[in-house]
Amino acid sequence: MKFGVIVFPGSNCDRDMAWVTQGLLGQPTRMVWHEDSDIDDIDVMIVPGGFSYGDYLRCGAIARFSPAMQATVKHASQGKYVLGVCNGFQILTEIGLLPGALTRNRGLHFICDRTPLRVERNDLPWTRNYETNQVITIPIAHGEGCYFADDDTLKSLEDNNQVIFRYSDVNGEINDRVNPNGSRNNIAGICNREGNVLGMMPHPERSADIAIGGIDGMGLFTGLLEMAMID
Amino acid sequence: MTQTYQAQIYVTLRPSVLDPAGVAVQSGLKHMGYENVDSIRIGKYIELTVSAETEAAATEQLNVICDRLLANPIIENYRFDLKVLSAA
């Protein structure tokens, strides 16, 4: 399984992603410069965290128009996998691959912490190595991670089971006290209807190497690999 | 004849979207003693010039520019004023 990691001016989690996919999992991984649009060789496109183009105007607003993102839309339309983390999630909403938008954290602070997440469903490659309702702990690091969508969009997301991860307490309870940024319905990660595009604010790549603590995020990557073997 | 227009563009958060920065500024004003100030919403102001054959053409182009890049219609509204700068 070949991974592609987009590198924008201002990306800062791209190397961490490649460390997981190539360094830890031994999968071929190519860094894709934002001006590159030839990604036909890639199975999984990763849009990493950081501050693409300085996050000027709005987070992800300018990155959306890059050749690499235009190619990523085509990649997704072919049913191939796309993962957006943090700034990557913001970019996926800006470009319309995922509904809603990420706005300023409710408390204004940039939050750098570990947070429990409840896994909402495990019938997708992303989550097949977790149990439904399992609580995993993954780092977050963002200033604009407050998920917003209007009532109709939110209802459609819930009706179609597109919420994959929610901020919870360690027992899986969902309430406002454990919502770090004010996201509607405690949403931390969503997928598209088809399930091949996943966006999430928490950083699974920062929780995949035992050398730096926790490995709760590794299941997401190994789930994809196992799925490829079954296919 | 092509004309150059200056656009003054205002981008504001939709009323349904939380504006924590506005709330923070409001608390600052309260500390200053302005108890009568309320409902602060912080937006963006953008200026640009655009050359077009007619004002209608400039307006049409700016609507696309605002919808696609300068504002995110999911969370923001926009409006703009156009004025003629010069005839080229």
Give the gist of this structure.
The complex is a heterodimer of chains A (231) and B (88). Chain A has 231 residues and is an alpha/beta fold.
Detailed description of the structure:
The complex is a heterodimer of chains A (231) and B (88). Chain A is of the alpha/beta class. Chain A contains 5 helices and 11 strands. In chain A, the strands form 2 sheets. A 9-stranded mixed β-sheet of chain A has the order 2-1-3-4-11-10-9-6-7, with helices on both faces. In chain A, strands 5-8 form a two-stranded antiparallel ribbon. In chain A, α1 links the parallel β1 and β2. The longest helix of chain A has 13 residues, at 218-230. The model of chain A has no long low-confidence stretch (mean pLDDT 96). Chain B has one domain (3-87): Phosphoribosylformylglycinamidine synthase subunit PurS (Mth169, Chain: A, 2-Layer Sandwich), CATH 3.30.1280. Chain B has helices at residues 20-31, 55-70; strands at 3-13, 44-52, 76-87. Chain B has a 3-stranded antiparallel β-sheet with strand order 2-1-3, covered by helices on one side. The N and C termini of chain B lie close together (7 Å). The model of chain B has no long low-confidence stretch (mean pLDDT 94). At the A-B interface, loops of A face α1 of B.
What features would you highlight for this structure?
heterodimer; A: 231 residues; Rossmann fold; nine-stranded mixed beta sheet; two-stranded antiparallel sheet; 11 strands; 24% strand; B: Mth169, Chain: A; three-stranded antiparallel beta sheet
What is the topological layout?
The complex is a heterodimer of chains A (about 230) and B (about 90).
Chain A: E1 3-7, H1 14-24, E2 29-33, E3 44-47, H2 67-77, E4 81-85, H3 87-94, E5 101-103, E6 111-119, E7 135-142, E8 146-148, H4 151-159, E9 163-167, E10 187-191, E11 197-200, H5 218-230
Parallel strand pairs in A: 1-2, 1-3, 3-4, 4-11
Antiparallel strand pairs in A: 5-8, 6-7, 6-9, 9-10, 10-11
Chain B: E1 3-13, H1 20-31, E2 44-52, H2 55-70, E3 76-87
Antiparallel strand pairs in B: 1-2, 1-3
